[in-house]
Design a protein that fits this description.
With 409 residues, this protein is α/β, with parallel strands linked by helices. It has helices at 11-25, 36-41, 44-53, 64-70, 95-100, 110-120, 147-156, 176-193, 207-212, 235-241, 364-370, 375-380, and strands at residues 6-10, 30-34, 58-61, 79-81, 103-107, 127-132, 160-166, 201-203, 220-223, 249-254, 257-261, 266-267, 273-274, 279-284, 306-310, 317-324, 332-335, 350-354, 387-391, 400-401.
């Protein structure tokens, strides 16, 4: 099948990244791989299988449907549902997995706990739950003042096993002081509880906090963007793991059309960008319907994101071209004028929107930043027309299309 755009997902790189985080936190701290939203659009099943085969102890999703989809894969590890699961009944499709321990739940308030407890006593083993404490995010979990009562109820309720206490930091990638304050709130709640069940693990750190300070590792860390090979937040955090992480994604397309544009002429809707000198402009058949952010395009008074133009053989980056003008639904324009040997660039030349490199404007982190969004948002926004391809650069397996629900017809 022909595609205007291919998004390569390197499973070997994901495995190396998972191993790097396991080494970072050490054997006493579990790693949970976050694969919500179809693993940020990269394919939850293959990613989750890779993470668990590499040693991660759990995988986490947000919705019940995501958990049910993963349960058909040979994970051999529990699936943690981060969202508040309510309205359970004996016929709920999740019940067999709750009974077997293959699914664990996050509890956000006492009414939800009581709903879970009402069906738990009919099961052969306790339903494992993690109590969520709101240390500052204000989007879920119980207030610190109510947490001791909720935790005590979870420990006393028949059919319930307390597997963890958790919170989520608001600004671990950018604000060290706020993160310390939120950890203090969480620690204060834990200290007030006293004795906890054996095996109950504390966890607060996602990727950025895991890299920021070992003090946040506690009993478990939740790694999301880190397994992609990208650290969100301050540049210093990205430097912290250095070459231990491998960029696991690459987004490629090609030039569909190349033409000459004279100085003073405008490009695209609204004439937002005008050529300041004679130049050549390339048209790439990806647009906002494919996940290119509208802010990627340069205007007369603002800079734009840059993409890589590959050599004629496609094996190296020949130079970078700026995305210019308004991003269209199906295409973008790029200014080829700064490339060496620009006259040799013709239709069919490969371009990279996101490169599997550690440096340059087309790293996942840098391209997203140039568009004013986070790497998570960029990945999750890539549309179904962009074909996902699994590769394993260590084992040289055959490339296989990753099934994408929105693209299935």
């Amino acid at each position: 099948m022909h595609s205007d755009s291919l998004f390569h997902v390197d499973l070997a790189a994901i495995a190396r990244n998972a191993a790097a985080f396991s080494r970072l936190v050490g054997p006493r701290t579990m790693c949970c791989g976050v694969v919500k939203s179809d693993a940020y659009g990269l394919g939850a099943r293959p990613v989750a299988e890779t993470l668990t085969q590499t040693g991660m102890s759990l995988v986490a999703v947000f919705r019940v449907e995501e958990a049910l989809d993963l349960l058909s894969s040979p994970l051999g590890r529990p699936v943690l549902i981060l969202g508040a699961v309510r309205s359970l009944c004996p016929m709920h499709p999740l019940m067999p997995s709750l009974a077997s321990g293959d699914v664990q739940l996050v509890v956000h308030d006492l009414p939800q706990l009581k709903e879970i407890g009402a069906v738990a006593t009919s099961l052969p083993r306790p339903i494992q739950v993690h109590v969520m404490i709101d240390a500052g995010m204000r989007r879920g979990g119980c207030p610190p003042s109510e947490a001791p009562q909720l935790i005590e109820a979870a420990m006393q309720m028949p059919g319930i096993g307390l597997a963890g206490l958790m919170t989520h930091f608001t600004s671990a990638g950018t604000d060290a002081a706020a993160t310390r304050a939120e950890q203090a709130v969480f620690s204060d709640v834990v200290d007030r509880i006293g004795r906890l069940p054996e095996g109950c693990r504390m966890h607060a750190a996602a990727t950025a906090a895991t890299v920021r300070d070992p003090a946040y590792h506690q009993g478990m860390v939740r790694i999301g963007l880190g397994w992609v090979g990208c650290i969100p937040g301050d540049e210093a955090l990205s430097v912290a793991l250095g070459s231990q992480l491998s960029p696991a994604v690459r987004w490629r397309s090609s030039l569909r059309h190349v033409h000459h544009v004279q100085a003073g002429y405008a490009i695209g809707y609204g004439q937002r960008w005008r050529a300041k000198r004679d130049t050549r402009v390339g048209i790439v058949p990806v647009g906002y319907a494919d996940g290119i952010p509208l802010a990627a395009g340069a205007c007369d008074s603002c800079g734009g994101a840059r993409i890589a133009v590959m050599s004629s053989a496609g094996e190296r980056i020949a130079g970078y071209a700026t995305v210019i003008g308004t991003v269209s639904m199906d295409q973008i324009a790029i200014d080829l004028g700064d490339l060496p040997e620009v006259s040799a660039v013709e239709p069919g030349r490969t371009v990279e929107i996101v490169s599997a490199t550690h440096e340059g404007p087309t790293t996942l982190r840098n391209f997203a930043a140039a568009c004013g969004i986070t790497p998570h948002q960029l990945l999750a926004g890539i549309g179904p027309r962009v074909r996902r391809v699994l590769v394993n650069r260590e084992e040289t397996i055959s490339q296989t299309e990753v099934w994408h629900p929105a693209a299935a017809v």
